[in-house]
Write a structure and sequence with these properties.
The chain has 8 helices and 15 strands. The chain has 298 residues and is α+β, with helices and mostly antiparallel strands. The strands form 2 sheets. Strands 7, 8, 9, 10, 11, 12, 13, 14 and 15 form a 9-stranded mixed sheet that branches. A 6-stranded antiparallel sheet has the order 2-1-6-5-3-4. Belongs to the class-IV pyridoxal-phosphate-dependent aminotransferase family.
């Protein structure tokens, strides 16, 4: 069916260009100045984040209570920056930028994107000249749905790579993975690692429920240390344990987490059906929702 649709697309007459979508209502902090939706600051084209992806980033949610888990995100950004041998980001400056882009916002749900790069550098892989570039953006977005479908990637995560566990702006592999999911009419793609164990999604961590046990891949298997994953390991009875795709197919429930998805039950993984928000997933989601409302910066 997909092949026939593609054939139809290649033979059909060209359609009129799609209209340009309206710019979202966002606020940008760059170089100490705020910009609204109607203007965009300029970053040099020789910035190493643009030239070779030499940078790190964080994405976190905003609710009526404010941005969630800011300090944990800043700590992870510092770890990622150290892994890329970038100068340590100034947490006080980043916090001030977050406060600036969130000021007077009345969103029920939104996101903050923090991007930190090596700054201007050579047109190659040698170290950037600096100073680093910092951009913080806030914009409203839709709350995540309670359930999703996922598919398995045809590519493997390298759990031994230089960027393993680093939230790098070199995100092309994840862009490709998410495109693969959308082509399969799914919301997320799950990667296995080179050992054949389940690793992570393009931007999520994954959990399986087996009776009373809830397991998630350990960091040595290659997943990013997700912030939602981190707090759930502290707040709930969850263990870190390797498991294969075949083992996951026997799970009673499966759910994924991320800073912008919170806790989402999986209804289908490839051809395997799951209950979505089963009893244990509902329990975990409710606990996370309650605790994250009480503790905005846990």
């Amino acid at each position: 069916m997909l092949g026939s649709r593609l054939a139809d697309m290649t033979t059909a007459a060209p359609s009129a260009p799609a209209s340009t979508p309206a710019a979202p209502s966002r606020t940008i902090w760059f170089d100490g100045r705020l910009y609204g939706s109607e203007e965009t600051p300029s970053v040099p084209v020789t910035d190493h984040g643009f030239v070779v992806g030499d940078g790190v980033f964080e994405a976190l949610k905003i609710t009526a209570a404010g941005p969630f888990a800011v300090q944990r995100h800043l700590d992870r950004m510092s770890r990622s920056a150290a892994s890329l041998e970038l100068p340590a980001p100034d947490h006080a400056v980043v916090r001030a930028a977050i406060e600036a882009v969130c000021a007077d916002q009345a969103w029920d749900f939104g996101k903050i994107r923090i991007t930190y790069t090596g700054g201007v550098g050579p047109l190659g892989s040698a170290a950037a000249f600096g100073p680093p570039t910092l951009v913080v953006i806030a914009e409203p977005t839709d709350p995540p749905p309670p359930t999703v479908t996922v598919v398995t990637a045809p590519w493997r995560r390298n759990e031994h790579g230089a960027l393993t566990g680093v939230k790098s702006t070199s995100y092309g592999e994840n862009v490709r993975g998410l495109s693969f999911a959308h082509a399969k009419e799914a919301s997320e793609t799950i990667f296995l690692n080179t050992a054949g164990d389940v690793c992570e999604g393009t931007g999520t961590n994954i959990f399986c429920v087996f009776g009373d046990r809830i397991v998630t891949p350990p960091l040595l298997s290659g997943p990013l240390a997700g912030i939602t994953r981190e707090v759930l390991l502290e707040w709930c009875d969850i263990v870190e344990e390797d498991f294969t795709l075949a083992t996951a197919a026997e799970a009673d429930e499966v759910f994924i987490t991320s800073s912008l998805r919170d806790v989402q039950g999986v209804t289908r993984w490839d051809a395997v059906e799951y209950p979505g928000v089963g009893p244990r997933t509902a329990e975990i989601a409710a606990r996370f929702r309650a605790r994250s409302t009480e503790l905005v910066d846990p």
